[in-house]
Specification:
The chain is an alpha+beta fold. The chain has 2 domains: 10-175 and 285-354, Zn peptidases (Aminopeptidase), CATH 3.40.630; 177-277, 2-Layer Sandwich (Alpha-Beta Plaits). It contains 8 helices and 18 strands.
Length: 359
């Protein structure tokens, strides 16, 4: 594990040691058991008793009161597989020029260990105006069914979640959702040499052009318009047969202006093809600009923005905000890193956000 200068405060040194240990354990999505064991051991060494379901861990604050609102602090323990262009060992935690390198350091080990320090700071304070839960969860990188969604029923009522992802400690007050549509235009087969049949490709192209030019009536204040992109197309069996089927896939990045179900309905009614969503579970999110945590963030100098990237926010049916140290631009890139200063400032930022917060 990497060590850092004693000039950093104890919380930062503790967070870096924990993150270094996590980096050195392979934790691809659906393969998080060993890193979950490691994080669980960390909590136990602190004298705490985390609950666990599969590869998901969570802890509730000591003085729980059902009459108080509940804040969930959540980030994930899984990683993508390392890019082929790594020049450093992705599973060796290395501190170089004030930066901690290693797979998952930025996305999202850094945000997670900072949230854990904030939880430890507050979890045994009797006069907190809210209940606090920390959850380290699995399968975020694949939006898996065995990740955070699987434990939400165990957590009870949640009033606000702070989702830890690399945002430069700015506030993602809205996040795009995702719907993938499998579409099929149906024609009539015939011989290409004669005026026979109805070409499904031509029919599909007409409908794709219609979708390309269509604009939804409502637009999100932070996320802008819904983005729809045809990404795959498949048709035909051989050169001399008019195809009777043309299948295509549409990637739809939804916004808080419409639910995913509403978005699918509008597109289905627009297009003269068969439209089937693979799932509508990855919804967009948006938080009121008057929400207390937004106001607190603004008072701390945090900027507001709308995030184009998915996170576990998409699976949470309550108020959420995405904030964390690190930079989303480094996620899934070779030689991923997070600055030690970013970790220190992340811990301080989370603690300041939560200080006497009234929901």
């Amino acid at each position: 594990m990497s060590k850092i200068s004693d000039t950093y405060d104890p919380k930062t040194r503790d967070a870096v040691a924990l993150l270094s240990g996590m980096i050195e354990i392979q934790s691809f999505s659906r393969e998080e058991e060993e890193v979950a064991d490691f994080v669980e051991s960390y909590f136990i060494e602190k004298g705490l008793a985390p609950q666990r379901s599969g590869n998901n861990l969570w802890l509730k604050s000591k003085y729980w009161d059902d009459a108080k609102p509940t804040i969930l602090l959540n980030s994930h323990i899984d990683t993508v597989k390392p890019a082929a262009s790594y020049t450093l060992d992705p599973f060796q935690a290395q501190v170089i020029d004030g930066k901690l390198y290693g797979l998952g350091s930025n996305d999202a080990g850094g945000p997670l260990v900072c949230l854990m320090q904030a939880f430890l700071h507050y979890q045994d304070q009797e006069q907190l105006p809210y209940n606090l839960i920390i959850a380290a969860t699995a399968e975020e990188e694949i939006s898996g069914a065995n990740g955070v969604a699987s434990i939400l029923p165990e957590l009870g009522k949640v009033d606000l979640a702070i989702v830890g992802e690399p945002t430069l400690m700015d506030m993602a007050v809205a996040e795009k959702g995702l719907v993938v549509l499998d579409c099929e235009a149906i024609g009539v087969s015939g011989h290409a040499a004669r005026e026979e049949g109805e070409n499904a490709i031509y029919k599909a192209l007409k409908e794709i052009e219609k979708l390309k030019n269509f604009q939804f009536e409502k637009e999100s204040a932070y996320l802008g318009p819904i983005k729809k992109t045809v990404t795959l197309i498949e048709a035909g069996t051989q050169h001399n047969v008019v195809p009777d089927s043309c299948k295509f896939v549409v990637d739809v990045r939804t916004t808080d202006a419409y639910t995913n179900a509403e978005t699918v309905k509008i597109i289905d009614e627009l297009m003269d093809v068969d439209v089937k969503p693979r799932s509508i579970r990855l919804n967009s999110s948006g938080l009121s600009q008057d929400h207390p945590i937004v106001k607190r963030g603004e008072s701390l100098g945090m900027k507001k923005y709308g995030s184009p990237t998915l996170s576990d926010q998409a699976l949470m049916p309550f108020d959420t905000i995405k904030i964390g140290p690190g930079d989303s631009a480094r996620s899934h890139t070779a030689d991923e890193y997070i600055g030690i200063d970013e970790i220190e400032n992340g811990i301080k930022g989370y603690i300041a956000l939560l200080k006497d917060l009234e929901l």
